[in-house]
Each structure stands twice: as structure tokens, then as C-alpha cells.
Specification:
homotetramer, alpha/beta, Rossmann fold, Dihydrodipicolinate Reductase, domain 2, 2 domains, nine-stranded mixed beta sheet, six-stranded parallel beta sheet, 9 helices
Chain lengths: 336, 336, 336, 336
């Protein structure tokens, strides 16, 4: 039974605590937050959990095996490094750190101490994303051609990170899981509509050595909530709509065939179109966080290989950092 | 009664001929096409129309007041210049020309001869786009914040122009009509999945001197047809879905309020969210091309001011050309 | 080449003429209508077709092999009987006649003269309905459990027949094709919101000897257009949405399993639920009327067996007549 | 502070307990259930609540002001009568009783003792239904013409009541709130697909003295979940889709105009169609049960008039009982 201390009981922390508590593999022994009122809420729900405003007390406690960090990004590095130094495994919210340098140090520190550093790329543990990975692994999609995602809604504006760090991070974590190749170059554009604020509407293109391309549109200023991703393959294509209550994944037997070597094709490329059935596979409806908690415990126990460890988290932060640089340059490409 | 000669009877030409024929303001006297079989189709439908494979014969004919050009982009310039030289008014399909230099020459030639050069930005004449303009003019949307459009489907791949020239041109023509400001810089990315082919998936960001930003996603490789545009204003926001049979325009009384000068706001920007009713105004259901034909005739008669004349067409080609340059540079911004 | 005379060039007649004209198996030689203006429209489109206000002239003509009747229901009987008496094959719009007695006489007259009496149950020839029949024939749906359809919109109010004869007739024709069993009893309810008018909102339940049940909701007073049918089987279930541009048919691998003979089930029926994938088969996109014209010609040539002949048309009229009677009795069941 | 004892902690009981506990107007002092395991769940969540398998102990307790009954319908009467006899106010789940006789006795008993008998018609307290009532009250819809609802899904099959008592009860409770008129006659049809089971697919038409008609389709055997209601008025019409995450209510400015007294109308009724904007008002997003708990407490305190008291509950049971009788008679109308 993994004993976890959770730092941060704001927006996401309560989900972590609930899932650790409901897991047969883990339990929460302590929660910390700057805000006494948040701790009162935690105590009402879980009278057995110890609460404190002092994160260091939890990090240093002998009753704790792992530290889950659900605080603003800027504090991840300091808290994670202290936890690792104290011999604790770490569960870090995404993005794992505020810079590549920080993320790299965290990966190194965990490796040196033989501790598990887990990054909470929650979407990777959903039935929908796991189904897409399965379709890829089975060869159903053929060669991957593109990933194109729109992730927009009204709010929540943040003042320390841009909408790319807040929303595109989800797509980058999904991509890191689905696509074995890593991008070589990024171009991003965006704008802030608030004086002195972070970009609230932004676009990111990631280039790869192959013909694959990834694009993500994110916004805090959209009147409707959209969570739609197109994943194109040479054999089949997927529409992944996370707003759909069921049938989140639709697989289209559609595509093109290029007759590139026929006699006629000398003069013009002949593209023909293929359209067949659509198919919506039943998805695993288990709550993603519950599966992720089990995976975290199994990784610590040496029973599973990390699916979203520090390396995956670092890869995502590298793209985020490059995208910020590109966005400051009006879209000028930034190599990775 | 305007006497029109139509050059090109392929995909779009028949729509032009039908609308000119059904208009009380115009009639078609001649049609030309390289393909005799296409001309046979035209003759069956309209026994009174003269047909020829010789475009110049129509351009030079005294029975014709105006030439409508519905051929591939590469031939627009030569045909339009000949028509203008022959004293004919010109209706050019979009994009109006293959380069800024060509488009500029066409505009100059038309101006010098006092002829009407019309560019067929069809969407500008739809009930949906006219309603958006009306909402802007009435101040309902407030200050425009962004335009974000997805225009994707499977095919039709073209081998002479990229998907930006084929599909994004629609959004750029709508933007040129809705937004009085013109962009100052463009960043575009894209990729071709066919050896030696044109980019088939592409993304374009247009920057303006104000806080407005425009973004267009286009693709010939999507398994589903999407025609969705978000138009954000400081007061209200529009979702324009052209696939919807009715209710193409939805106006959301949603937005943010920034408390930028309060005492608390010294430390952090306070953004609050406003959500109210949604409203789908009834749209004019007249076929856009019919209204456009009437407008064309009225412009020639000096009764109306051109809504999509050579200047609007040129502005669109300028962005297309810059976008192509940016796309070749991996997204590096190109000034306008 | 079948030579057809078309009587009635109002709402549906033009579709018949176009499809007969475009068919390699048939041609239209004459069209009649009471309204000279409608005939003028026909002549403009098809200069070769003879037009007349005298239906009898067409019925008696030696140049005509078959008569297509696209007039109001009340006149079907007289026109069809005259055509059959004149040795012509008949294509009758649906419902085929205004009463069971009329329909029965028509069937008898055609049989006696060895002529083909075809009823235009158009939906039977759509890709969607043919696919449902195919799924049933393959056993994919298992035993049929229910058919439940909503067919509502605003208008078009008719003053000679109720909304059941106008709209439910479509569902009854589909049912007659999909379900080999025929109903034994009908209950219908409805109301007219116009003084002295026909019922404009109505509901019809058809009972069968088996556990199958069919229900149809129809309305001329709905603010939105709905064309949605659920077809439930013991193995799979279909949602057929005719408004969908593509994916009109969705097959759900869902259902129940009844453990009726287990020990526990002595006390309570144990129902367990099964949910699996959803699948939207690609449908034949051919225009239904075109396929139907080819079928009509083939039936006359003795090459195909009638799919929607007089017997199918009669079965539908029997239900319509019984439904009217039940509706007048406030829903009291009427045997068939 | 109202002290509540809750009987039944199965499917709905936990929602009641949560809302009573979170209300500033009420608290739960005791919970009973036959199943010890359910009580264990309740204790874990609410350590302060007393639990027992003996409902009578709660009913007789002096610490309790009101009894909430969330047990199967068959037990409502006995429990409610005991509670009223013990001087307790009663909150009964819907339908309030298994027969009209039972419901009437409950109403009488509550009246005699001056106690509040509340029926949990939850939908009446939703933002969507309250908005429809508001639209009616303001005259926006004009004269009500029809209510047409589909409420279908897969499961949950019940073995003591039919799908009408399980699902149509929701629509009847909404209708009782929206429509001041009460129905005079009911016709219902339905079928059971399980040997010895209750009808699992059913249809109900309610007739009124006016031109208003109500129809409800319910099913436990549908592959998809549908919760769609059309509410037609002479001025505007509403589509209420409870599956929609937002915009559950859409108001259509559509309808017909009947020119019944014009000269031309002597010969045929002239119906013209009116189509205008659509409007989706923002809805109150408060949880319905929370508002209902506050209302219950206020009714007991004599501060509010009951919105869904025993009379409303009785009216619903009357229709349910008549519908069952009509269904047994194959749709034969049953007066109310």
C-alpha cells in the first residue's frame, strides 16, 4: 500500500486525493495547501487524513512513500527536487516543470536515486487515447499522416502561463504517447487580448522528419467548448471528440490512393478517394485517474514500465518551451 | 440585359451559367471550354447558347458585354487581360490570379479602361456572412478579437495550387469583407503527403496591428467535412457552421470582463466570465450566386459600389502569396 | 425503351419526369397537368415532351406504354383504372388509393390484364432502407422487436388527407418492406389544430402476432425537421436518421439478455445489458428514384419480381384506413 | 433546520441525502435500508448519520420532522401513512403511490393532519422546465398546442412497474406543472418483450378538452439515450433536449397562420408558414434537487405554496392508472 502525501488541494488536488483514496494500491496520509479553507474541505471529506500548510513537513515525513504535486507549475521543480532528495517517489502535475532545464534536473535526480518520477498526462490513461494507440499498434491506421486538434473554451485565464502551456500540453502529452517519432521543429503563433497578459489564443505546428505533421489550436476565448482531434493515417482516419458522452472515437475507412507510377501519372499525380464504413469502438469507461494511480503504484513496485515518466514529461516541456520562443518570433520555426 | 460569355464549363462554370441564365439582369450568349464533351452538356441544357473551344472568339465577340472566367487559376491573368483589352467587363473566379503582380496588372487595366473587374468571392453574398457583417456593423459583437476557421474534407487534391489557394481563399475573402483592417504579417505551415505534390494540409495565421488575429486550418485529407468558424468579439461571439442546414449562425452572449484597474488587479489581472443566451438569427436563404450576379450587373450599370472588386481580390492574393512564402520557410513570418 | 406518360406536374411529378428522362430504360413522351403554367415549365426543361391538360389523351395514346400518376390521392383510382383499361402499365404515387376498396380493385384490374401496377414507395429504394433489409436478411439484427419512428416538420398542411396519410405512409411502406409479418391491429390518436381541418399531429401503433410493435409519430406542426427511426432487434439495433448527410444508418451492438430459466430467475426476471461497438455502414448513394425506375422497367419486362407492387400498396392503405378509423375512436384498436 | 429521516438508500436515496445534507435548511438525522451494505456506504460518507434496517424506528423517532421515502413504489403508501400518522411531513418519490386509491388516501391523511406531503417531481425544479413555464406565463408561446416527448434508453428493466410508470411519469409531472388544464382521456399502447415481464416499450396519448394533445414515447429497449420534447404553441415552439450539456431549451419563432375567414378560404383552408429566429435562453444551472429541498422546507414553514404536492402527485397517478388500463385494452381510450 503506497502512502502518498498530496501537495496542493485546489482544482486538481481533490481528484488526486479521491483516486488515491479509492485505490486498493494507495492511500493518502497527508495533504498540504497554503489555504486553510481548502484544508478544512479536505478534512471534512476525509477525517483520517492529516492536513498542514507546511509542504516540507509532508515531504520530510517518514510516513510518506510518494509525493503528489498539484500546485502551480512554477513550484513543481522546487517541490519535486526536495521530495526526491528526501527519497520520495514523485507524481507531478503537467506540465512537469516551467522549463526544460528544470525538467531535465528532475529526471536526472530521480534516475540517480532510483526513484519513480511520474508525470500526470491524464489523457494517456483514457479509454479513447488507449484505443487510438491500439489502432496504431494493430496497423489499422497505416502510416500516420497528421494529428490536428482543437481545444478551446471560455476561460480559465491564467496569469503565469500561456494557453499553450495550459491546454496544448494535453495534446502534446497524447502525441508523445501515440507517435513514436519526436518532432524536430515547432512553429507557433498566438496573441494576448489582455494588456500584460499571457497569450489566450494560440496555434502550434510541430514538424517531424517524416511526412507527419501535428497542429493544435487552443483558446480561452471561445464561446463553445470544443475538444476535437483528427488523427489521419494512410489506411484509416480517426475523429476523436472528447465532448461526446459515448462514441468518442470514430474510425473512418477513408483515404486516398496515389497512382504515382502509372503511365498517366507522369503528367499529373492521380489521386483517387476511398470511402467506406465508419466504426465507433466501445471504449473502456474506467476513470483514467484510477488506472493511472494503479500504474504509478505498479511502476514503483517495479512491475510495470513507465508510460508517462519524466522522459515523456520532459519531451512535452521541450516543445512547450520551443513553442513559446516561436510565438515570440511571430511563428519563426524553432528547432528541437 | 447584360450579355455574358463564360469561359470554362468544368466544376463551377455550370453554376455561373445557370445563375446568369436565371437572372433578370443577365443572360449567357456563349460558353467555351477545351473539352467538347463539356460543351455538349451545355448545349443540351441551354440550346440557345453558342459554344466553342475558342475562348478568344468569345472575348472578341461584339455580342458580349462581360466575360466570366471559370478556368484554372494559372489562366486567369491572360484571359482577363485580353477581355479587358477587348473592352469587356470581367467576372473572375477566386483566387483572381496566380500572383500579386498579375492581380495588380488586372486591377490597373480595369481601372484605366473604366471597366468592372469583379472577383467571385461567393461566400460574401451568403445570408450567413452578410448577417455577420450586419452584426459587426450594428456593434453587436463589439471589438473584433479573432477569426478562427476549420475548412477540411477529403479531396479534391489539385496539382497546380496548394490547399491554401484552394480552401483558405474562402476564409480570406470572408475576412476581407468582415474586417476593415488588413493584416500586416502572415505565418503559415503545411505539408504535402504526396511526392512532388502541393501541400494538402496547411495552417495560416494572419496578424493585424490591433489585437485581432485570424487563423485558418485547411485540409484535403480529413475524413469528415468541417466548415466551422469562430468569430470572437468583445461583446458577443459567433459560431458559423456552414454544414448546418439551418441555424448556420449562432450568436453567443458570452465573453470576458477584465478588471484591469482595480486595486487588486495591481497584482494579478482579474478576468471574469460572462455567459448569457444564444441566438440563431434567421438567414436570407437566397442562393448567393444569384445575388452576386445582380450585384455584378448593378456595378456595371453604376448603380452599386463593388463589394468584391479587384481590390478585394488583390488583397486576398497578397495574403496567399505571403502564406506560400511563409510555408516554404517553415512558418517564418512574412510581412504584407 | 419504356415510353411513359406522366399525369401531374406539381410537387413530385418533376422528379418522376427527370428520372424517367435520365434513365437508359425509359423516356417520357407526354406530360399532363390541369395548370398550363406547370406545363410551360415542363416544356422549357424538356422541349421534346408533348404536354396537355387532357390526361385522357395521354392515357389513350398509342405512343405510351405506361402511365405514371402523380396527382392528389383522390384521383389515383379513376386514372389508374382508365390506364389499366387502356392496356397501360401503371406507376402510382403513394398512397396508391384513397380507400382499401379502390386499392383492391386496382390490384385486381392489373392482375386480370397482366399489367404491372407499381406503387412509388420511394424509401424502399434508398441505400439506407436497403441496408436495413440486408442486415435483417443476414441475421445481424436477430429477431425484430420494434420499429419506432418520428417524422415531423412544419407543413405542408393538406386539406384532403390527414398527416397520417401524408407522412406515416412513408414508414408503413418501409415497414411493409422490412418486416415480413403484417400487423393484426392498429391504434391511432391525433388531433387537428385547424377548424374543420385534417389531423395535423398523429400517432400510430401497429400490433403484430409476434412480440414486434411498430409506432409512428407524425406532425405538420413541429418547429424542426426530424426523420428518426429506431429499429430494434434481439441481437443489434439500428438508428436510422435520414437528416444526416452521411452515416444515415448506425448499427449498435447493444441489447439485453434475459436469464429466464436460471434458478434465481424463478423469483425475478434477470435482465442483463450488453453494449458493444457502433458501426455505420457505407450506403449506396444512388438516387432512389433512379433505381426505382430501372426496377419498374425490369418488372414490366418480366426480368424482376415487384418489390413494391399493388399488394404492398394495398397493405399500406389497409393500415391507413384502419388508423383513420381508430383515430376517430380516440385510439380504440381496429383489427386488420 | 428541518430534521429528515430517509427511508431507502438504493439508487435515488443517496442523492436525497446529499442534497438534504448540503442544504442550509435541512439535515439528515437517520437513514434506513433493508441492505446492511447500503447502510455501510451511508455511514462512510456521513459518519454523523444514524443508520438502521428498521424504517419504523425512524418514522417513530422524535428527532425527525420529516420522512423522505425512496423505496420501490409498492411500499410508498404504507410508509407514508405511518409517517403521517406519526405526525411527520412526507417527501415521497415519484410516482407517489401504486394506485389512485392509495394516493388519494395519502392526500387526505396529510390534509387532515395539516402536514406537508411533497412529491419529488424533480424535473419541475430544473432550470429547463422552469424556463418553459416562464415562457408560457409570459405568453411567448401563445396558446399551447401539443407536448410530444421521447424518453428512451437501454434499461433499467423493472419487474414491478411498466416503463410508463418508470419513465412517462417524468413527462406527466412536467405536464402537470406546465399545463393548467388536465387531460380528460388517455390512450396507451405498449408491449413486453420478456415473458411475464412488464411492458418495456410504450406510448401514451393524453387528450384535453381544448385542442391541446400530449404524447409520450418511452422505452427500456433503445440503443441510444433520447430525452427530447417538443412543446408547440400558437406563437412559438420549444425543443427541449435534456441530453444537451448546455442550450437544453431552444425557442423557435416558427408557426402557422390560418387565414380561415378570407374569401379564398371558403374553398380551402389557407395555411401559411412563419419561420424566424431561434433563441436558446441561458438556464439556471442550480441542481434541481437542491432547489426542491429548499422549497420543501419553505412549504413546511408555511412560507411557500406547494408546487408538487400531493394533488399534483395524485393527478399523475390517475393518468398512469388510466394508461395501464388503456394499454391492457390495446389503446382503447380511458376517461379520467
Amino acid at each position: 500500500m503506497l502512502r502518498v502525501g498530496v501537495i496542493g488541494y485546489g482544482y486538481w488536488g481533490p481528484n488526486l486525493v479521491r483516486n488515491f483514496m479509492e485505490s486498493p494500491h494507495a492511500t493518502v496520509v497527508a495533504v498540504s495547501d497554503f489555504d486553510e479553507r481548502r484544508l478544512a474541505v479536505a478534512r471534512t471529506r476525509y477525517p483520517t487524513i492529516e492536513t498542514t500548510t507546511d509542504a516540507d513537513a509532508i515531504i520530510g515525513s517518514d510516513d510518506v512513500d510518494a509525493i503528489a504535486i498539484a500546485t502551480p507549475v512554477s513550484s513543481h521543480y522546487t517541490l519535486a527536487m526536495a521530495a526526491l532528495a528526501s527519497g520520495k517517489h514523485v507524481w507531478a502535475e503537467k506540465p512537469m516543470a516551467a522549463s526544460v532545464a528544470e525538467a531535465r534536473s528532475m529526471v536526472t535526480a530521480a534516475a540517480e536515486r532510483g526513484l519513480t518520477l511520474h508525470v500526470d498526462h491524464t489523457f494517456v490513461y483514457t479509454g479513447a487515447v488507449m484505443k487510438m494507440r491500439e489502432l496504431i499498434d494493430r496497423g489499422d491506421l497505416g502510416e500516420l499522416l497528421y494529428y490536428d486538434s482543437a481545444r478551446v473554451n471560455l476561460g480559465l485565464f491564467q496569469h503565469d502561463v500561456s494557453v499553450i502551456w495550459d491546454l496544448a500540453v494535453h495534446d502534446l502529452s497524447i502525441l508523445a504517447y501515440l507517435q513514436d517519432e519526436t518532432p524536430v521543429r515547432v512553429s507557433a503563433t498566438g496573441i494576448s487580448h489582455i494588456r500584460g497578459g499571457q497569450p489566450d489564443v494560440a496555434y502550434l505546428t510541430a514538424f517531424y522528419d517524416s511526412d507527419f505533421i501535428a497542429h493544435v489550436s487552443v483558446s480561452w476565448l471561445a464561446p463553445v467548448k470544443i475538444r476535437q482531434t483528427l488523427l489521419g493515417g494512410s489506411r484509416k482516419m480517426v475523429v476523436y471528440d472528447d465532448i461526446e458522452p459515448s462514441e468518442k472515437i470514430r474510425v473512418y475507412d477513408k483515404g486516398i490512393t496515389v497512382a504515382s507510377d502509372s503511365a498517366e501519372a507522369r503528367h499529373e499525380t492521380l489521386v483517387s478517394y476511398r470511402t467506406g464504413d465508419m466504426w465507433a469502438p466501445k471504449l473502456d469507461a474506467t476513470e483514467a485517474l484510477g488506472a493511472e494511480v494503479a500504474h504509478f503504484a505498479a511502476c514503483i513496485a517495479g512491475e510495470q514500465v513507465q508510460r508517462t515518466g519524466g522522459a515523456a514529461g520532459l519531451a512535452v516541456v521541450q516543445i512547450l518551451e520551443a513553442a513559446t520562443r516561436s510565438m515570440n518570433g511571430g511563428g519563426a520555426p524553432v528547432g528541437l
